[in-house]
Design a protein that fits this description.
heterodimer, A: 423 residues, alpha/beta, Fumarate Reductase Iron-sulfur Protein, Chain B, domain 2, Glutathione S-transferase Yfyf (Class Pi), Chain A, domain 2, Rossmann fold, four-stranded parallel β-sheet, 22 helices, 8 strands, 6% strand, globular, B: 219 residues, mainly alpha, Fumarate Reductase Cytochrome B subunit, 10 helices
Chain lengths: 423, 219
């Protein structure tokens, strides 16, 4: 079905639920959400106030689902939502929101604004107002299996590299394994060391694992663009592979929104709970540690900090695990001033990094993270999301900052005690 | 109509009508919200979480770290107004007497000096937040007619109550009648303006805490 305003408006009506109605009912226009949003704090432009980004959705709610709003619409007193308005709002909904949910943590009346922006995107994409970069990435993901166009042949090349470098076999399509390992395009293309690290850690722990030829890509641009049908198709590939191979647990890689897509939205997109577990790699590392199966040796003795990927910590609940690991591995681990579930986003989440027209705004918004790093004075930053990493590496380059970025899984693997398993 | 007749109407039929509209409005608005429903979340919630809907209902009353410094007028103005208004409303002895007359319920009041201070503090805070709404670009962008109407409807009961109590400017009977009428306007507007947050805040905070809580996050 092609995009149209009517489809978009119907999608608005479809996504409006009791939580959203209570959120709009409670908003007192205090403007505090702006103070929590890096797109506002770094630009001082009031149009980036989070709740303002939802104005067309709010009016749709008011005019469709409140008695007074419907009366006003009937007598022509209500300002209708128009296609031109949605076109204008595209920048606010896609370029200046990373779905980081920091506003949702500070709103005094408890509005989960990120929840609403995610829902509003369903209508925006149905109306044809999603940014081109994201639309293209989503199409590629549906057609080729990955938003970056990474095909299985590329994954095979990565597998060969890893096998050669680390001397272990990377299992593919193995049934009944403990873990199904997924990757993001970034990990396949830019950070093959991730696969090497996970393999070494799981092998050392005596766990069985596998890759799946039909489901190697964990990212889901359908979630970012706001197209549930496409998101379902992409999640469905992973669910299909996990069920076919009868794995116990699917490991979401170092990628923020992939975790949201599979762990939290996945069962809702598929319309049923999963028979397998979904864990972020940091949760798996922590499980192994607790079970005494993750033995580490040595430390990285230099001042470093941890950047919380929003979808992993604030929107995912994985904020203690990386700290437990870092406290063990890095004696000079320091926290940024605002961190954990109140961290500041890298500026490229929620599809912003794949949206070319948002580039300049994304770099401006990075000034928040820049200030945090400078305040701490460290030269090394660890994270657990390949997208955060790429976005920040690019921005650090842009601002001529000499900061080294590390993936946490990789750091753990580098300090793995690789003596015999039963020692 | 003499001031006494006005007062008699305001105290009698006026109050009943206002309370009826307010109660009906609240039920209607709650129905509007809950009738939209909420799909069951099929993802597996975390077993242990420091967060929950009930927790967030309370915790959202405190500013998150760093925010007080970024928006002091909003926070301090907000606290002083809400506390001043609530103390004046619930602990002024004649107000308690009114509730006792209507429902039989009563509780101890506070000395009039305390009520006086809380009312003045509430009024000053309202003026401060209005000034902030007019001068802060974010608030100005978000504000419409309703925001200023809600402000006025909140300001009037405090202001008229203060005038009546101190026998200032206008005749006491008239001041008292105007005070009660202003409260009635507030009651009528409450369900249909942003003043409805008085009720819906418990719902929205609960949903927020529930959404975050099942993921293991205390919001």
């Amino acid at each position: 079905m092609s995009a149209s305003f009517e489809r978009g408006y119907n999608a608005f009506k479809e996504v409006l639920d009791a939580p959203i109605a209570s959120f709009f009912s409670s908003c007192v226009h205090c403007g505090l959400c702006a103070e929590a949003c890096l797109f506002y704090t770094e630009t001082s432009d009031p149009k980036y106030t989070p709740i303002h980004k939802l104005e067309p959705l709010r009016r749709a709610w008011q005019q469709e689902y409140t008695v007074l709003g419907r009366l006003a619409k009937l007598v022509g007193l209500a300002k209708p939502v128009t296609d031109a308005e949605l076109a204008e709002w595209s920048e606010l909904v896609y370029d200046s929101c990373t779905l980081c949910g920091r506003c949702s943590m500070v709103c005094p009346v408890g509005n989960d604004i990120a929840y609403m922006v995610r829902k509003m995107r369903e209508g925006m994409s149905a109306a044809g107002h999603a940014p081109e970069g994201l639309v293209t990435a989503t199409k590629r993901a549906i057609q080729s299996g990955s938003p970056a166009g990474v095909k299985w042949a590329t994954v095979e090349a990565t597998i060969k590299r890893v096998q050669k470098e680390f001397g272990f076999e990377v299992p593919v399509n193995r049934e009944n394994a403990d873990y199904l390992v997924l990757m993001s395009s970034w990990e396949i293309l830019n950070y093959p060391e991730y696969l090497g690290a996970v393999g070494r850690i799981l092998n050392r722990a005596g766990a069985t694992w596998t890759l799946a030829q039909d489901a190697y890509e964990a990212t889901n641009s359908g979630i970012q663009i706001g197209a549930s049908d496409l998101a379902r198709e992409l999640v469905g590939r992973i669910v299909g592979a996990a069920e076919q191979l009868k794995v116990k647990c699917v490991i979401s890689p170092e990628c923020g929104h992939a975790y949201t897509a599979i762990r939290w939205e996945g069962p809702n997109l598929m319309g049923r709970p999963f028979g397998f577990e979904v864990k972020h790699i940091l949760e798996v590392l922590d499980d192994l540690r607790k079970a005494g199966k993750l033995k580490l040796k040595g430390t990285l003795d230099k001042p470093l900090t941890y950047h919380d990927p929003c979808q992993i910590s604030r929107r995912g609940g994985v904020y203690e695990q990386p700290r437990t690991l870092l406290n063990q591995l890095a004696p000079q681990f320091r926290e940024m001033h605002e961190t954990g579930t109140l961290n500041w986003c890298c500026g490229g989440g929620g599809g912003v990094s794949a949206n070319e027209r948002a580039e300049s705004l994304r770099l401006t918004s990075f000034k928040r993270k820049k200030a945090q790093i400078e305040e701490l004075g460290v030269k090394t930053m660890v994270t657990a999301c390949a997208n955060c990493r790429v976005v920040m590496e690019e921005a650090l380059e842009h601002y001529h900052m000499d900061i080294e970025m590390l993936g946490l899984t990789e750091l753990v693997a580098e300090h793995l005690d690789e003596g015999k398993p039963n020692e | 109509m003499t001031p006494l007749e006005l007062l008699t109407w305001a105290r009698g039929p006026g109050l009943s009508i206002a309370l009826a509209i307010c109660a009906f409005g609240i039920l209607l608005r709650l129905f509007e919200i809950f009738s939209l429903g909420r799909k069951a979340d099929l993802s597996k919630a975390r077993e242990h979480s420091p967060g929950s809907g009930w927790r967030t209902i309370l915790s959202r009353s405190l500013p998150p770290p760093g925010l007080m410094k970024r928006a002091p007028v909003t926070y301090i103005g907000g606290y002083v107004f809400h506390l001043g208004f609530a103390i004046t409303l619930f602990f002024f002895v004649p107000h308690i007497e009114l509730v006792r007359g209507l429902t039989g319920l009563s509780w101890p009041g506070l000395p009039t000096q305390v009520i006086d201070i809380s009312a003045v503090a509430g009024l000053l805070a309202l003026i401060a937040v209005l000034a902030s709404r007019l001068s802060n670009p974010v608030k100005r962008l978000l504000s419409g007619f309703q925001d200023y109407l809600a402000w006025l409807l909140t300001f009037l009961p405090l202001a008229t109550g203060y005038l009546a109590f101190h026998h200032l400017l206008i005749d006491y009977t008239l001041a008292l009648a105007l005070h009660i009428l202003s409260v009635e306007l507030l009651l009528v507007a409450l369900p249909f303006t942003k003043l409805f947050h008085t009720v819906s805040v418990f719902v929205s905070r609960w949903y927020n805490g529930d959404i975050f809580g099942r993921k293991g996050v205390a919001s």
